[in-house]
Amino acid sequence: MTEPPSSPATHEPSRADTAAEGGGENQLANLRHSLRTPLNQILGYSEMLQEDAAELGCVTELLDLHKVHTAGQQLLALINESLTPARVRSGRLDLGEFRRDTRTLLNLIVGYSGICRENLIDPRHRQACDDLGKIETAAANLLGYLGDLSVLETLARQTPAPLAEVRRAAESSGTGRPGTILENQGLVGTVLVVDDDEMNRDLLLRRLERQGHTVLVAENGRQALERLETTKVDLVLLDILMPEMDGLQTLERLKGSEHQRHTPVIMRSALDEIDRVVRCIEVGADDYLSKPYNPVLLRARINACLEKKRLRDQEQAYLEQLQSEREKSEHLLLNILPQSIAARLKNGETIIADSFSDVTVLFADLVDFTRLASRIPASELVRLLNEVFSQFDWLAELHGLEKIKTIGDAYMAVGGLPHPRPDHAVAVAEMALDMQRVIRRVDTLGDIRLELRIGLSSGPVVAGIIGSKKFIYDLWGDTVNTASRMESQGELGCIQVSQSTCDLLRPTYVLRERGRIEVKGKGQMNTYFLVGRQG
Is this model's pTM higher than 0.70 or not? Predict the structure, then answer.
């Protein structure tokens, strides 16, 4: 039994039909793009010339320029309404009538432009004459494109296929008669205009400069990227169809750059294909404008992009300020606490107390510093103390020790915490010897020489944080008390160590036995003086 033939209503287009139709639609879209580019120039220059004529009171020229602008608007409407795939394929487009209507409007544009140029004989009107010449050049270019409409004839001969209805333009442009030059009511910034057409660049440059913007130009995507490497801009107006590197490729490069990804980009094209618009937005474009564009709409969208960039710049500045303040707080915290302890405190620990079984504690005191303080100005006293303790801090960092605190003219440090190390006594001994060398080099600006007493003791301690506001990382235990007594009951210019520290330093260091002394709170103890390294 034979299958009945498919009805036309259920017939699906072949791949060849679809490809042919897609190719024809692309050609038609390119034709619309080619026609709208010179139309954009005609409308743009005529708008600016009307603004200038209104400001200068040139009534006759203003009327003629209005006719030029009106003819341009009518020509745009004619192209938008006539050159759609549906109308071309349906046979409703009369090519002869289309050519006749477009040429009539172009003749009006060229004719009234020529009349205006003839009337503007004053040397002050040289710029206006140049602009009128650009309008006539754009009209001639448009006429050249209209001379070859073979794509319309080809598309009209194709069999209609039941595909989705052709997508319309993203935006249609039409402007009323402008009056006087508008005052700049929006934000101003540095704008980069990227377009391969010289008149398009000139038109946008002058329009944007009237709005108060600083304008840079580039002829293609490659040149735009080069300019962005050396110049910071607030906005990019980017044409889609360009040689070498088109707008979409340029946009992808911009949004892939770490330094340029947040620069706002408005895409511009006479193409009315929605898929290109969608692709640009997907890649990261902030907005899209069709040519020819409405100057009020152009201003509004530029202002919106600049406002968004301004808000982002403010946010970035706040974040950088916040980061700077955080770093200052971090630095201040690390000046008070060991890094690991600071990290634990930031992670939410409220009670920090640790036991360490084997550390070496150092106490140092500037002898007769109180007497010195009475003989020199306060500022010099603070400078001197800062110089000494800053060098002690540097030595603690050099030897991998932890500074605990300063109390007046006394200095306290420890080796072996918060990270245990087996050579804690050696490291503290090296720092003590270096502290003696430092103190001998300090300039007191007087005849009084600074002297230092140092005491060391080794053993177990408890370390933790005390206080809730002006907190401090401190040590407790018998080892701390013994080290403090070794300093306070030592001799001028000497490093006195307890028996526990002496046992850890032999035989690497030279230690001179002092003998048994009465230590407050400890009774009789054997103590030693650290002289230096063996050899």
Answer: no
